[in-house]
User: What shape does this take?
Amino acid sequence: MSAEEALKAFYGALIDDAEELYDRAPCGYLTTAPDGTILKVNQTFLNWTGFGRDDLVGRRCLSDLLTPGGRIYHETHYAPMLQMQGSVREIALEIVTADGNRIPALMNSVLERDSVGAPMVVRTAIFDATARRKYEQELLKAKERAEESERKTRVLVQTLQQTLIPPQPPEIPGLDMCAAYRPAGTGDEVGGDFYDVFQIGPGDWVVAVGDVRGKGVDAAVVTALARYTIRAGAVSLQRPSEVLRLLNDVLIRHASDRFCTVSLVRVKRPNGSWLGTVSCGGHPLPLLARKGDRAEPVGVFGLLLGDFEEPKLHDREFVLAPGDALLLYTDGVTEARGSKEFFGEERLEEALERNAGSAKGLTERLLDTVLTFQDGLPRDDIVIVALQVPEPL
Assistant: This one.
């Protein structure tokens, strides 16, 4: 064999290999005229669709193999983009097979022009996207399930939170009282802050404000346990410190590593005047503002509950005269974070001293001030309970 014959044989083999690669490629290949008429198609595409070569070449346009919606998209978007840009990539369409079934496909096309810029041919590569479509459908179903689960979780959170916070504070004859609860963030997670106000007997009331460590369902379980332990203990135990010791014992023996802080106040009206007793287990001390005087903490700070076998707890008595106000709160107030600093105790005391004369006014104004300080989005749960003795008319 001469050198010329050998060179021809070599190039002939290359051409045969290229044709074989084109025909058996792992994707479909079509060459179409500028008007869309199919000029050439590889065997892979024919195997996918079930058409014969004679069914397509010179007889059908690429758009003829698309669904009705796909044909509209091809005419209004695909073809115009190809003319303007010279190429289109990863367009998702469906190919209709010879037996009427549909194959999800990703199409990539390139428009070739002659030396003067006139369209010559369009070369299109088509990838079978069946597996990808199934994955996308499963992903969509998973997303829908997740959204439904999130919706149910929000409902559960709201329902659970409503069981931990009194829906409406009771009215106490002879004592003006108001309470506010604001969950952290968007309120889509159960918080650990709680409050409760309930009656023991005529003119005998208990007010509790607490904070369980953490958030979520586990914290809610401990919150419910704390709230109802306080209610049960206050019936038989006179002093707030005794009730808190009972709660501490229950938390120590509970299958949880969560502790809590509580400020517990018992107010009585034996002879027309309100007498109070306060005990605090790891919780911020209540603030007492007497008419015309500065607001000051009342009580003795004690150890948090659920962490020590014998926490030091103290009772401190006080008198609520007409015009006096008592404020109980959680650290979501004082530790509210602004742009540069915490809200702090000084701002809290100033808000209490500016009391306009009602527990509702004090509570609402304080809550609004704390929220504004944090640009309307609290970083932690907030509980505020205000008691005020009305002045005689």
Q: What stands out?
A: The chain has a mean pLDDT of 86.
